[in-house]
Amino acid sequence: MNDEKSISSTQEFKPFIPADKIMPEFTLTSIFLGCLLAVIFGAANAYLGLRVGMTVSASIPAAVISMGVIRVILKRDSILENNIVQTIGSAGESVAAGAIFTLPAMFIWMKEWGLGSPSLLKIAIIALCGGLLGVLFMIPLRKALIVKEHGVLPYPEGTACAEVLLAGEEGGSKASVVFAGLGIASLYKFIADGVKLFPSEIEWAIPGYKNAAVGMDVLPALLGVGYICGYNISGYMFAGAIVGWISLIPLITLFGGDSILYPGADPISTLGYSGIWGSYIRYIGAGAVACGGILSLIKSLPLIVTTFTKAMKDYSDRDSSTSYLRTDEDLSMKTVLFGSLLVIIAIWLVPTIPVTLLGAVLIAIFGFFFATVSSRLVGLVGSSNNPVSGMAIATLLITTFILKSTGMVGHEGMLGSIAIGSVICIIAAIAGDTSQDLKTGFIVGATPKKQQIGEIIGVCISAITIGAVLYLLDSAWGFGSKEIAAPQATLMKLVVEGVMEGNLPWTLIFAGAGIAFAVEVIGIPVLPFAVGLYLPIHLSAAIMVGGIIRFFLENRKNVSEEDKKDQIDRGILYTSGLIAGEGLIGVLLAIFAIIPIGTSNLGKVMDISSKFSLGPIGSIICFILLILTLFKFSIWHKDKKKTA
Length: 644
Fold this sequence. Notes:
- This protein has 644 residues and is mostly helical.
- It is 72% helix and 2% strand.
- The protein has one domain (3-206, 274-318, 348-643).
- It has 23 helices and four strands.
- The strands form two sheets. The protein has a two-stranded antiparallel sheet. Strands 3-4 form a two-stranded antiparallel ribbon.
- Residues 1-10 and 639-644 have low confidence and may be disordered.
């Protein structure tokens, strides 16, 4: 690749496809394939996020699959068409991320109150309003963030996705790696949690150290998350889990004795480690997550002000009579303003969203603020480290206090608060995703206006389908259960209840905030540590394994940098497939769990664990075999190619 077409941060940057060159971009094929991938990756990430509390970017696997279909199967050569596919496809993951962090709280409350569940229409409208505002609010920021700060803000996922698209010829062969991961993870997940040939969760109590335990969920998605996040992020999460499970739980056991301490309802001496985690550690972790999110926002305030000022100046300087190059064409400011106003009025007037005019105004204010925050932060730290849940917590704390002070309390106030938080959370998630996608388009030479329309299409199809996925998972297992703990959503529920009813265990919350602040002081990223403290150690331990493998691949000796990069990239594609495969089978198993078979259901009929099981040893062996497949499609694939 010559210098003119490279991804370098020069002042005279030129996109891969020149502005005066017209190529197929916004086609029926790209729209259909993008919508299909939006549904698939949206469902997979919804399951992953509800189980683990994290989602991963779908841009790169969507781009690779697109190239495999369009270039190899359809024999068409258009990098811009592939770019539209990943733009639409990645919107599904972002809508899912915003929805699962908040909306399950609404399900849990309505069940407790005997009101059933939120309607599919309500979920779709909340997701649609948040998604549309996320796209529209980001558009005025594009020139300030994507163009003028090219080379300053790296936008990791957006740049990496551009590199994948620019690889071009390798797209077809690399697509097979994604599909291999998807197929292997699907089979593994079905055997582990469908047939239940071996337990997917294993744990051991530490002898002589009362109520201290270690464990691991031996599942492909967790291995994939750890590999994609890398050793550092995985290590911070695992460190948080160690503090919770190896230090705090035994200490509470030692000093608690036979006491019954709120919010627990039983003597501490009768609780096992899981009981202490559920009654106490969760609240300490919640305080740490809330503190981490707020600290991240405070540190970003100078950047937010700078970004907002530049964006407004860029738009005020534009002359409507001037014609712009294809690569500089956005949706018009009139469209952005009119569309945003229309959505905000709809939020106020449509009865399915239980907010007043004050709530709609709060959404507009906080929405644009956090869209700016998210768009800037993902440019610095990437989408995977974007503190969306922290933004939602900050929103919920403020809006719940405001609604309570205006007399909107009880069920109405709680549902109103979580509805506002849901829209804000989705706005932040989509604004970050749109930024990454526009960065990819800037590098390859796409038309921003067409990408922005693609984002809107992706948001619409995802908003329509995410409700069905949430209904399915809730019907099968119930939010807050062991299978789908919905960690962020249960945290949001605690925050709103604590403000409205004044019943939060503030001592535990402040203890967690104190731990998070101490971690920040010594220079450790707070949010991954806090999430590790909040979640069971079983999740962090498996994620840590993926991080260790990534560390090994990155630090091998006697391997050229080119080969090393190729092998690591193949590992990322394979583990993206692992995540998608487990997520899809998780959704399928949820369907099986609600299909009646006599007095039971199809899920229980398939379960053979009572008759035969490989046990924990079998779990370890199968997980090791899964790890070997990761080596097979990364470093061993390269070795095989060299010897051919």
